[in-house]
Amino acid sequence: MTPTPIPPAEPTVYRSRADEVYAQLKRDVGEFTLVPGDRFTENEISERLGVSRTPVRQALIRLQQEGYVEVLFRSGWRVLPFNFEQFEQLYDLRMVLETTAAHRLCEGGAGAGAPHIQINHALLDELVAIWLVPVAQRSTDGIAVARWDEEFHCALVRAAGNTEMARVHSDVTERIRIIRRLDFTKQARITATYEEHAKILKAIRSHRGDQAAMLLRAHIQSSQAEVRKITLHQVHVARQAAAA
Description:
Elements: H1 17-30, E1 39-40, H2 42-49, H3 53-65, E2 69-72, E3 76-79, H4 84-109, H5 121-131, H6 142-159, H7 163-180, H8 187-205, H9 209-228, H10 232-243
Antiparallel strand pairs: 1-3, 2-3
Helix pairs in contact: 1-3, 4-6, 4-7, 4-9, 5-6, 5-8, 6-7, 6-8, 8-9
C-alpha cells in the first residue's frame, strides 16, 4: 500500500516582541483599557507588560503612524481623541462596499445574469446559523455580539467573491472597530442587531437585491447615528462594562 503523503507543516509565523506589544496595546485601545485622552509613559507600559522599552517604543511608533496615539513633548504618550469626521467617512465607504456586496450575492445566487460571480454559500449558511435563531437562543453578551456583528458584515463582503473589495472592507473594519463596539453597550441595540441581520439574510436568500441593500443601508445608518451620540463619558462607561 502506498503510504499517505504527509502534508507540509504550516509555516511558522514569527512575531517579534514589538509585534506582541503592538497587538496588546491595540487591544487595550479597542477594549478601552486605554481610552481617548489617557496619558502614559513608555516605562509604565514596559513594567505592565514585562518587556524592555525598545519594543514598547517600536510598537508605539507603529500605533502613532496608524493614528491611535501621539507622542507628547517630554511627557510620554497620549491616546488620541476620536476623529468623528473620519469615522463618518469610513462608515460611508463601508455602506458602499456592503450594499454592493449584497447586490452581488443576490445576483450570483440567482444563477443567471452573473455566472462569473463565485458566491461562498457556506459563509452565508454560517451566518444564518448565528442570526436566524429563536429569541430565547439570542446572546445578551454585548462583547460577543459586537464580535459576531463585525464578522457578519465582513463575511457578507467575503461571500460576494471579490477579494479586493473584501480587502478594502477589512481595512475599514479595522479602523472603525474601536468605536463600533460602543454600539453594543445597550441591550436595545443588541436586540435590534439580531432583528436587522435576520431581515438582511432573508432578503439575500430570496435574491431580493434592492431590499437587501436598503436594509443594510438602514442598519449601518442606525449604527452610524449611535456613533454620533458617543461622548467621552460613554467611552469610560463602556470600559467599565468591558472590565466587569
